[in-house]
Design a protein that fits this description.
This protein is of the alpha+beta class. It has 10 helices and 13 strands. The protein has a 6-stranded antiparallel sheet with strand order 3-2-1-6-5-4. Strand 2 and strand 3 form a beta hairpin. Helix 1 packs antiparallel against helix 2 and helix 1 packs parallel to helix 6. The two termini are about 75 Å apart.
Length: about 450
């Protein structure tokens, strides 16, 4: 009989552990009391009410899960530590803190008062359902057995002997071990959710910062674009005006019969029209470049003339820099390789890289005697290399390793995001499979090298 009883107890405890181990969310806790009801019945404990009280000190709450005789969930009550007027709560907390078994007895009147208090608080809907009948039980012996996370409650008509309490304690201990694993799982899920939320927030912040960096560089371009676009428009206006005068002259020569002079004027007109077309196209390309720069990158790579891009952004950056600081002057020049092939790149992204590097170069030569910035292109080891060189003071040794880190900047507060070189590095290396590196020498300037593959695998 002893071995049989032990086997029954072991099977019961195993079922408790397995069932609780399968719980994954708070709602699953309502499965606890039907489980406890079933196992108490298997163990032969005489009772007619039972429940599990989870005591949470962090939230100062007692979560009470009670079961019906048929094993279904009767109620889930969530009461605060300050609900000391409810004896079941007060007694549970006091004995849980000392990890001692609590025994009590309620008559019908005491049970009725407890039920009425729950009804008034809106914690239960039906007195009949909670009482498990039309009237409260005439006599209820309460037994609360402690475990690490709370108390296991068993209500019976008569007081339970010590051997029955020991069975309940074994059940409570098994429940405690399994419930600890459930708590670990919940903590892991909460940590995972927290990490995922943090990642989402970081991605959102990154997108906002990238947008801010893009808008900052767009602002720097505006003045340069205004200056650059004015030049071809002036040419268009001037040649148009001259061409109008030539048309009048040609008309007069034709009317006078001087066809040879009229033909000469016609040739001049053709040249003027070619110049008007050239400068009109020039203005159009500047506007197109501006739109490409402001547009969100689609990631689509197009065959691009790197020489044209380098020349364009060098001049735009200079005029943009001059617009912010009228006293600024610097020599700038290009050394562009004639045999450079068109390569597939995201034009607006590489444009942003060049703009950032050239702006940094102009910043570096402020206050230098005979300031100069040079943009050079060449083929090197099967790659197209673009270099931006300045004759500034160079990058100090102690910050050389930091310049490509996000948010690192040597500019005064409010004048830079610290993302320019970081984003440029990502665009070149991750977006185009290229390389971005720097060479610098104290007192002798810096040179940044962008290397892009001719046949981009991206």
């Amino acid at each position: 009989e002893a071995r049989t009883a032990e086997a029954i107890l072991k099977s019961s405890l195993d079922r408790v552990r397995a069932e609780i181990a399968s719980m994954r969310k708070t709602e699953d806790l309502e499965r606890i009391t039907p489980l406890i009801w079933k196992e108490l019945t298997v163990l032969g404990v005489p009772f007619f009410r039972c429940g599990v009280f989870i005591i949470d000190e962090s939230s100062q709450k007692v979560h009470m899960y009670l079961s019906k005789p048929n094993g279904e969930s009767l109620a889930a009550l969530h009461l605060g530590f300050d609900d000391e007027d409810i004896p079941l709560v007060r007694d549970a907390i006091d004995h849980w803190k000392t990890q001692t078994v609590h025994r009590d007895h309620w008559d019908q009147q005491q049970f009725s008062a407890f039920t009425e208090s729950l009804k008034k608080r809106g914690l239960i809907e039906s007195l009949k359902t909670y009482q498990q009948g039309e009237k409260p039980p005439e006599s209820l012996n309460l037994h609360q057995v402690p475990f690490k996370q709370g108390m296991l409650y068993v209500g019976s008509a008569d007081p339970l002997p010590d051997d029955q309490i020991e069975l309940i304690q074994s059940l409570a201990d098994a429940f405690s071990v399994a419930y600890s694993r459930y708590e670990d799982f919940v903590q892991l899920e909460e940590a995972k959710e927290s990490v995922e939320n943090t990642l989402t927030e970081l991605q959102s912040a990154q997108n906002q910062l990238i947008h801010s960096e893009k808008m900052a560089s767009l602002g720097e371009l505006t003045a340069g674009i205004a200056h650059e676009i004015q030049n071809p428009l002036n040419f268009v206006n001037n040649f148009s005006e001259v061409s109008g005068e030539l048309m009048e002259e040609m008309k007069e020569e034709i009317e006078s019969g001087n066809l040879e002079d009229a033909m000469e004027i016609g040739r001049d007109l053709i040249q003027n029209i070619e110049k008007i077309n050239h400068h009109g196209q020039r203005a159009s390309s500047i506007v197109k470049g501006m739109l490409q720069h402001s547009r969100t990158s689609t990631g689509k790579k197009d065959p691009t003339d790197i020489n044209l891009l380098a020349d364009e952004y060098l001049r735009l950056a200079y005029h943009g820099f001059r617009a912010k600081d009228k006293s600024f002057n610097a020599n700038f020049k290009t050394e562009l390789a004639d045999d450079l092939p068109k390569i597939e790149v995201v034009t607006q992204d590489i444009g942003r890289v060049l703009l950032n590097l050239v702006n940094n170069a102009f910043q570096a030569v402020k206050g230098v005697e005979s300031p100069e910035v040079t943009v050079k292109t060449q083929m090197k080891d099967g790659m197209v290399e673009i270099s931006v060189k300045d004759n500034g003071h160079g990058v100090p040794e102690d910050i050389k390793e930091k310049i490509f880190q996000p948010f690192f900047t040597t500019k005064p507060t409010g004048e830079g995001t610290g993302l320019g070189l970081s984003l440029s590095y990502d665009i070149v290396t991750k977006g185009h499979g290229g390389k971005l590196k720097m060479e610098t020498q104290k007192g002798n300037g810096s040179e940044f090298f962008v290397e892009l593959p001719v046949k981009n695998k991206g």
